[in-house]
Design goal:
membrane; transmembrane helix; 8 helices; DUF4956; Alpha-Beta Plaits
């Protein structure tokens, strides 16, 4: 009769390895990926509807769907195999993202897509659906709220100091908030760049400024802090 002696370490290892792997059914994989795709498509539509930048990037918008689905695959693999999850933690720790994100709202959509993939991959379908609906509703609601003031840059080319004074006087009468960003003086030409806050997109004052004697031209540019359009 053979007497086998198991210590605590052996029992722990066997029990751990036996419970480390969980089989994934094909139906669950299809259901999870299908739901993730639908949520990713919902994110796609919300991003396109609320986009207010200069150049719309369709590839970035499509990548939101891919990010959600890839994340869902990773989470399903992690939750089904504990040993594999430990290896993935080490592998993902060396990943670095170098793409510059200019608009902070793009980061919000990226985290939304990643979070949706995590939640659906973990099988929390109800949370993924209702969470995405609430986030989408909030983003659309704030997008539809019109801003009372819009930022612009006004570039004016004047012939002499008298014309410059007339321009500043007219701007003071029409605009409450403005400041001079730059001023370039050359022979027979003075170029000024002013940052303005305009209510309700009322831009008719530009026509008045351009009609001042000594003003060669006046250009109004939409200003978004990081870039102009």
């Amino acid at each position: 009769m053979n007497n086998e002696v198991f210590n605590f370490s052996d029992i722990f290892k066997k029990g751990f390895l036996n419970s480390a792997t969980t089989d994934l059914s094909a139906m669950k994989v299809v259901l999870t990926l299908g739901l993730t795709f639908v949520i990713g498509l919902f994110i796609y539509v919300i991003y396109k509807k609320t986009f207010k930048g200069v150049l719309f990037s369709k590839s970035f918008n499509i990548s939101l769907i891919a990010i959600a689905m890839v994340t869902s695959l990773v989470i399903m693999a992690v939750t089904s195999n504990i040993v594999l999850s430990l290896g993935m933690v080490g592998a993902l720790s060396i990943v670095r993202f170098r793409t510059a994100i200019k608009d902070p709202i793009d980061i919000v959509f990226m985290f939304w897509a990643i979070s949706s993939g995590i939640v659906t991959g973990a099988g929390l379908y109800t949370l993924a659906i209702f969470g995405s609906l609430v986030i989408g509703l909030i983003l659309v609601m704030f997008n539809n709220v019109s801003m009372s003031e819009n930022a612009y840059l006004l570039v004016v080319n004047c012939h002499d100091n008298k014309a410059e004074e007339e321009v500043i006087k007219k701007i003071k009468d029409e605009i409450k908030k403005f400041n001079i960003k730059s001023k370039t003086v050359a022979k027979d030409n003075i170029e000024m760049t002013l940052e303005l806050r305009v209510k309700n997109n009322e831009t008719s004052f530009v026509n008045t400024v351009s009609n001042i004697n000594g003003v060669n031209n006046a250009v109004l540019i939409s200003y978004n802090g990081d870039y102009v359009s």
